[in-house]
Design goal:
Two copies of one chain form a homodimer. Chain A has helices at about 20-30, 60-65, 85-95, 105-115, 130-135, 145-155, 175-190, 200-205, and strands at about 10-15, 35, 40, 55, 70-75, 80-85, 100, 120-125, 165-170. By secondary structure, chain A is of the alpha/beta class. A five-stranded parallel β-sheet of chain A has the order 2-7-1-8-9, sandwiched between helices. In chain A, a hairpin with a 2-residue loop joins strand 5 (about 70-75) and strand 6. The two termini of chain A are about 25 Å apart. The interface between A and B is large, with 41 and 41 residues.
Chain lengths: ~210, ~210
């Protein structure tokens, strides 16, 4: 049932408290989807494997990649560089793997500009009260941080029409959200817009 | 996980030999999808139930519906009238049932004009040889009929970009095609374009 062998590029966005990590974990475990592995200049921690947790590299290597426009995006955080290599995304997609990028709204917009065929999915709690409750549930954070996150989430709701799909993640029902995500992946593979060469291929099977 | 309660309008098109009947049967049996029940002036046959097999009506009633623009489409066939009532489609959709219409390419185009939110799915055999083989397999038909059907199918392939999705129905794998159809239905329910009022609803759950 594969109309295309190339993997999808799936961008998943969701406010803190959306539970997107749990929803994605179920999908990634199924084998044909994988997170994009970031490049970093940070030293590996015990147990971290190069190419699995991160693509570890020197600052020199990293800067060479920047100079060569090899990054989809990159940023510095606490003195270390982090970035998403285009080769990482394209390489996995060519192998038929659906690449998942977890990004903020702004990052999602950037990816859509570079990859118009990217699928943008927004994972949200079912309602405002649940969002606030989940943020407050993280006892480690101050009221100020919680308020700031709520404001960010509300502001981001304004850009919902940039996304292709909305998936609500209800309490205790992350498996349902994962199933919706899986259905979106299957449906997208059957989109006519992804099967440009289909008719040509179909007709090429005609034996005169 | 329902972002919308309204049922989808699903138009399924496929050449003779695409096996769309088998693919749809699996879906309709799942309960939340139903064929549109046609109206007809033909007399009920033994065992046929009004409202299930057809909406049976008199010629006078049928003509009144025509005059009132109640039909999505109607046609006369061997002296009897057949038609799809808009009320049949809208009534089922309002109840949250996904309405399935099996139509030719031209009919699908007409529906898309009237219902821009309709989902157009094209079911096809995996390749040309299979299509021809399936048509030839119907031993009851003459070479002329088979050739005509092949020509129609080839001509219709030219309008493939009118459709939203293509699902290939491979020999002995109609369950896979049905699963793809089911995924398309689920994904479509999560489309941002179907959840216009979503942000408003989400924010209305905010308690100040």
């Amino acid at each position: 049932m594969e109309e295309t062998k190339k993997g999808l590029l799936i961008v998943v966005t969701g406010p803190a408290g959306s539970g997107k990590g749990t929803v994605l974990a179920n999908i990634v475990n199924e084998g044909d989807c994988a997170y994009s592995v970031s490049a970093t200049t940070r030293k590996p921690r015990p147990g971290e494997i190069d190419g699995v947790n991160y693509h570890f590299m020197s600052v020199e290597e990293f800067k060479e990649h920047i100079a060569n426009n090899d990054f989809l995006e990159h940023a510095e955080y606490v003195g270390n560089h982090y970035g998403t290599l285009l080769s990482e995304i394209n390489g996995k997609r060519e192998k038929g793997i659906h690449v998942i990028l977890e990004l903020e709204v702004q990052g999602a917009a950037n990816v859509k500009r570079l990859y118009p065929d990217a699928v943008l999915i927004w994972i949200l709690p079912p309602d405002y009260a649940t969002l606030e409750g989940r943020l407050r549930g993280r006892a480690t954070e101050t009221e100020e941080v919680i308020q700031k996150r709520m404001q960010t989430a509300i502001k981001e709701l304004g850009s919902f029409d940039m996304f292709d799909y909305i998936v609500l993640n209800e309490d205790g029902k992350s498996y349902e959200a994962s199933r919706a995500l899986r259905a979106i992946i299957t449906a997208e593979q059957h989109k006519v817009s992804r099967t440009d060469s289909f008719v040509k291929k179909f007709m090429s099977t005609k034996i005169d």
